[in-house]
Write a structure and sequence with these properties.
Elements (H helix, E strand, L loop, with lengths): L6 E7 L1 H4 L4 H6 L3 E10 L11 E12 L7 E6 L5 E7 L19 E2 L19 E2 L5 E5 L10 E4 L8 E4 L4 H12 L21 H12 L9 E6 L2 E5 L8 H4 L7 H12 L5 H9 L5 H19 L18 H10 L5 H24 L7 E3 L2
Parallel strand pairs: 2-4
Antiparallel strand pairs: 1-3, 2-3, 4-5, 5-13, 6-7, 8-9, 8-10, 11-12
Helix pairs in contact: 3-4, 4-8, 4-10, 8-10
């Protein structure tokens, strides 16, 4: 088609325009001018299980123009063939992706790898069982787009796959912001392939602290405390470094189990507060009212948990230390049908208010592009 006035119409997913793996193709080959196009949901194809955008786009092969110099706006149609929106795509540069925001610390110390909140990945052949020095937790963080949102979580050991990184004090706030940014917005078929980007503006301190608190109390915080874990001939104690309350406070709560009660007292004497509790204490004076309400709601659920310890299936959730994780607490209470409805409702309302505050800032600060214009 060289030197000929020619066009190509492509039915395709949109990865070739925005995927990180196709950047070399965009930079060196696919430099054609967009003429016109539309997108629709993959669910219009019979038997398709995924939910992602499919496009029909006409490219002018005679007119050379890099994609990053074009405004690629496509009409959006629903399954009734109604035009419902216009979506603008901006080809991304790999260096600007959220996954490239900071250098991940080097993993050098062996530690049991986790395949979920409570399970050790013994059987994985190619497993990641190393942590960085000063390890607090790990961020399971697969790929860089919405399609992998369900694979974003916080764990108390290294994620068994290599799709994650160690969280240390130096990158604690950035890591929990990534967790919030990638978990809070809702995935839809239309944004399924959208990429998360590094912020384009200076981050307000209140946004940072709000994001940390939202992460610590989110359902995707799967950190836990597990005792006496045997892995490759050694015994490990998995601490919950994201336990959010100071021992001086926890020591005043009623605990129905004598052994856990005694461990709280001993830990309090040793000043063995966890990192997240110290972080909250150090930032308490600048926390927003929304974050304070989330913490307050969390306190009541934690207190209720300790009061009901003797009624819970502790072996099932591996609860035998004072610093039980948010995952262990909510799951054990739910399992025993002992989660107080009023406490949970008030807590969920506080979390929603904090999330509603954070969500528009994610777009305003440049983590995501606000590129969908809905039609009346």
């Amino acid at each position: 088609f060289n030197n000929r006035q020619s066009y190509i119409g492509m039915f395709s997913t949109l990865k070739y325009m925005i995927s990180t793996n196709d950047q070399k193709m965009r930079d060196n080959f696919f430099n054609y001018k967009l003429e016109r196009g539309f997108i629709f949901s993959s669910q219009n194809f019979q038997g398709c299980k995924g939910k992602f955008p499919v496009g029909f786009i006409i490219w002018n092969l005679f007119n050379q123009l890099p994609l990053n110099e074009q405004k690629i706006s496509l009409d959006v149609y629903n399954s009734q063939l109604e035009k419902i929106a216009v979506k603008t795509f901006r080809p991304v540069n790999q260096n600007d992706l959220l996954s490239k925001w900071f250098k991940r610390p080097r993993n050098v110390e062996k530690f049991p790898p986790m395949s979920s909140a409570l399970n050790i990945g013994y059987k994985n052949k190619d497993r990641n069982d190393k942590t960085a020095k000063g390890f607090l937790a790990s961020l399971m963080c697969t790929a860089n787009d919405f399609s992998h949102q369900n694979y974003i979580s916080l764990l108390s050991g290294p994620y068994v796959s290599h799709s994650g990184h160690s969280i240390t004090e130096k990158i604690f706030e950035q890591s929990l912001m990534i967790h919030t940014v990638r978990r809070l917005p809702k995935a839809t078929w239309l944004n399924d392939r959208d990429q998360f980007m590094q912020p384009t503006k200076e981050l307000p301190r209140e946004f940072i602290t709000d994001a940390v608190i939202w992460s610590l109390f989110s359902n995707s915080n799967n950190t836990a405390a597990i005792s006496n874990v045997e892995y490759e001939g050694s015994i490990y104690q998995i601490k919950n470094n994201f336990y959010p309350f100071l021992l001086s406070v926890v020591d005043t709560w009623y605990c129905s189990d004598a052994d856990i009660r005694q461990s709280i007292q001993l830990a309090s004497i040793r000043n063995d507060d966890r990192f997240a509790a110290r972080w909250i204490k150090n930032n308490n004076d600048i926390l927003s009212q929304e974050s304070i309400k989330v913490i307050g709601g969390g306190v009541l659920i934690y207190k209720d948990f300790y009061a009901k310890l003797n009624q819970l299936n502790r072996p099932k959730f591996k609860i035998d230390t004072w610093d039980a994780g948010w995952y262990q607490i909510r799951m054990s209470l739910n399992d025993a049908n002992l989660l107080d409805d009023k406490l949970n409702s008030n807590f969920q309302s506080a979390m929603k208010a904090l999330g509603d505050k954070l969500l528009p800032q994610i777009y305003d600060l440049g983590f995501l592009q606000n590129d969908i214009t809905l039609l009346d």
